[in-house]
Amino acid sequence: MHKDTTNILKEFWGYDGFRGSQKMIIDTVISGKDVLALMPTGGGKSVCYQVPALAMEGICIVISPLVALIQDQVAQLKKRNIKAIALTGGIHPNEVNDLLDNCVYGNYKFLYLSPERLQQNVVRERIQQMNVNLIAIDEAHCISQWGNDFRPAYLECSILRELVPKTPMMALTATATPRVVEDIVENLELNEVRIFKDSFSRSNIAFKVKRSEDKLYQLKKYMGKIPGSGIVYVRSRKMCISLANFLIKNGISASFYHGGIPKKDKEKKLDRWLSDEDRIMVATNAFGMGVDKPDVRLVIHYQIPDSLESYFQEAGRAGRDGKPSTAIILASNEDEDRAKQQFLSTLPDVAFVKKVYSKLNNYFQISYGELVSEPLAFKFNEFCTHYGFNPNMAFNALRALDQNSVLSLAENFKEKTTLQFVASKAEIFNYLDKNRKTAPIIQTILRTYGGITDHETKINLYMLSQKTGTGEKHLKHILQQLANDNIAAYQNHNSDLEITFLVPREDEHTINPFAKKIKDFNQVKQQNMAAMLGYISNRNICRSVYLLNYFGEKNAEKCGTCDICTKKNKEAPPHDLEKRILELLELRPYSSRQLERITGANELQLLNLLERLLEERRVSINLKNEYIKT
Ligand code: ADP
């Protein structure tokens, strides 16, 4: 007998009733069947597996892709006095054992794991000893190579089928096209699965595309107007910084966030934004997953995202509280070409991936058959310059290697600065004498690091800049000058990526097994981009309907709030235009461009009219895309 689920919802969450398909999903897993739950962001997926897990005896295993997501979930459960454990990376093996012990004997209700953990024997063995009541696979689209966030380690999830064969499995996701759904069912080996799909409709978000040749002006205008929080998505770190500065200069409270920022600063920036100290976050796609801020009023994409999946997910961070919000793509005429150029021309083919892999091995001086297993700090830009690689293409090649488990890639910004005074004492004194301005700073360095005249010493630029009241940039300049004047040896290493090789170097033989996958992947990327560009150039179909159709919802209703719906209402075409068009089409077929030229009509009005005539079947389109009278 299990406990009443509505009571559990009330007791632990304080909610009076279930939403959408929650109740049906919960009842289905409790009856022992597998479930695939497709729900929009903010739809309440967690409750779907957490409530039944509490209703039944035993422990629920949750697979989740991101440490941040896992930690957040476990913290939330603990707040509700529910016993939960997170097994993420960086835990000492002894501790792993203790944690797993707790899951076997300790009355814990949830064990959260990253998929990589399932590769460990100790984890597999202990799972078999647990009384597992439910397996929940969060962000299940990560298992599909057609999805946007494909994580090969997710394929390991099917091992759970063998470990605890009788336990029902629930897969959950907020982004899944029909093809991804098929993949999830197949790869997780879901049995007689019941699929529940709540509409992905986000009716409180007005989706818009704003064409403008002065996007900065538009950005300032929109962000200046909104009352609460906002996010601006861009595609490069440089752009993050420059747009945040631009907003600040214009009196708008803003900050920036990208993958290259040290972890501590990331947390600080996130906290400031969450607590409304900074209003607008300008970010790359490194920002967002697991960020649950309910009152984001506006999400602007300043550059075109690479797929509608990414777009919908990022735009969906607006209005989680259900209040009216807006998601805008700012696009100039050149943007579409640029996006194509940026994405399609930088998709690496198999030969290029092989080349990057081979150069990477040379770069780290790894010989054939060798495996260096410790993480290696990597200066990506230097690598690209050295071998003449286009950085976007090289990064995509590294990502392909990462996705196919040849190596593991971590964005990890580290700066290491070392200094050693090599001149004699007399020469140093002489130097200090001649450089009165910088002397106090140099003296501080000498005093802070005792052995710095004898050996190469790692110095902390941040601390020194605090101590001396000098900016880090200026400090570096002084150190460089010391080196130029032969007083000290100075080295400043930057690494922005960390690479861990996972298999020994075998050149072609390493890459060949997944050559086809690389080709398929490129094809997916091309299709994704085409759908994205289709969304932007679309001038007739309601934005929300367009997005929902893409996610397999055929009968979506018009939103009434997107740029297309609102323009249509405002600009009904005059009646005589209709008459004139029908007269023209009586004579011969015309393209919409030709009709626009001949009638001098406003493009949008004309397109709206043609769409209506099509719907009413008074005109149709021939193979040359021309309109004909029916
Ligand atoms: P998702 O993972 O689908 O994006 P969450 O599980 O984070 O969404 O839920 C979004 C918010 O909705 C959370 O604050 C959650 O507590 C709340 N929520 C979930 N189910 C209900 C419900 N039945 N009634 C009211 N609020 C709910």
What's the total number of strands?
A: 19
Reported for the largest beta sheet, the result is: 7 strands, parallel
What count of helical segments does DSSP give?
27
What is the 3D shape? globular
Strand percent estimate: 15-25%
Uncertain residue segments: none
Q: Please identify which CATH superfamily of the largest domain we are dealing with.
A: P-loop containing nucleotide triphosphate hydrolases
What would you say this structure looks like, in words?
It is a single chain. With 630 residues, the chain is α/β, with parallel strands linked by helices. The chain has five domains: 5-197, Rossmann fold; 205-332 and 539-565, Rossmann fold, CATH 3.40.50; 344-403 and 502-525, no CATH class; 423-486, no CATH class; 571-629, Winged helix-like DNA-binding domain superfamily/Winged helix DNA-binding domain (Arc Repressor Mutant, subunit A, Orthogonal Bundle). It is 46% helix and 17% strand. It is built from 27 helices and 19 strands. The strands form four sheets. Strands 3-4-2-5-6-1-7 form a seven-stranded parallel β-sheet, with helices on both faces. The chain has a six-stranded parallel β-sheet with strand order 8-13-12-9-11-10, with helices on both faces. A four-stranded antiparallel β-sheet has the order 14-17-15-16. Helix 13 packs antiparallel against helix 22 (515-537) and helix 14 packs across helix 16. The protein starts with a helix and ends with a strand. The model has no long low-confidence stretch (mean pLDDT 89). The site of adenosine-5'-diphosphate has 14 residues, from helix 3. Residues 13, 15, 18-19, 22, 39, 41-47, 292 line the site of adenosine-5'-diphosphate (ADP).
